[in-house]
Write a structure and sequence with these properties.
With 381 residues, the chain is an alpha+beta fold. 31% of the residues lie in helices and 27% in strands. The radius of gyration is 25 Å and the shape is globular.
Length: 381
Amino acid sequence: MRNLIPLFCLLLLFCHQARSQDNKSSEPDISGGMPAATNIRGAQFPLILSNHHVVFKLKAPDAQKVQIELGKKYDLIKSDDGFWSTTTDSIGEGFHYYSLLIDGVATADPASESFYGMGRMASGIEIPFAKGDYYAEKDVPHGDIRIKKYYSLVTNSWRQVYIYTPPGYDANTDDKYPVLYILHGGGEDQRGWAIQGKTDMIMDNLIAENKARPMLVVMPDANLGAGAFGEDGLRAFETEIQQCIIPFIEKNYRVKNKNEYRALAGLSMGGINTFYTGIYNTHSFAYLGVFSSGWILPIQNNIANRQYEYMRQNSAKINSNLKLFWLSEGGKEDIAYKNGQIMLAKLDELKIRHTYYEYPGGHTWPVWRNNLYTFAPLLFK
């Protein structure tokens, strides 16, 4: 029996060393990394490595399971001190939503700034992009983002709208400007293009380089009830922009009020709103931009078929009124890609003139930032 005790002690020592080694190996290599620009002040993690892998580390000693959902779910490994950590795959350029899942409950990461997306306040992470200087803050004249309230005849309530005014708007009091009305996607609101989309930075840089005309960019809340994807919801937005938003802008800002000086664009759900409202109102909008969108089939078959029939009967008027009908997708990995291709084929069949553009990246903000950067210089020529 006495001979077994040393052997037992050796086994305990071996297990302890093995466990320590496992915990040590689970510690991420953070050499050369930098905290994400979207972290709250002073937070080291999430930490972005030079290869765009992201290291997460957080303390949750009582949790049984911790995951990060960033494109896919990553399991975090717990160490003896109650910290959990993991390193993701390489994450693409620009802004991405992510969630912290603690024992299956999705929540915002307290170490990250939060953004309204995915239908709730969610964490977001900004991945550096060498070619993303078009949305970098530069030493150029800057415009303003203004937050205003207007009264909606559709909801019978006060609603909020974000408005970008270009550099010099307040000084150039004799000038009138064209307007781009741009819509967020599902699960987002009027803050989407202003914050996640970096609209002001993109427009400031384009205008400074004389690549785009100075213009107002109006970012409304397109959420008008639970039936946003039904025809009632689409009609509600059509009424909202025609009877409430445009009159408010044209009463309170120095803008040109003919269709040739108005553009309407949107991403995903906002793209559907743009397609629906824009095609029926080419007398109001001469430029349409549909980003990462397409009729959702078969859910919207009836709405789509009615609009296609309208387009067939009015193709000459639509082609005459529209100076640009611009559609884009985020490549084949975009969840809207298939429906978008069906819609493009229908436009060809109906002989509706349009331009198509692809930027790889899926159904994400990096794609839509690039869409705005590419679309805005084509407006109001």
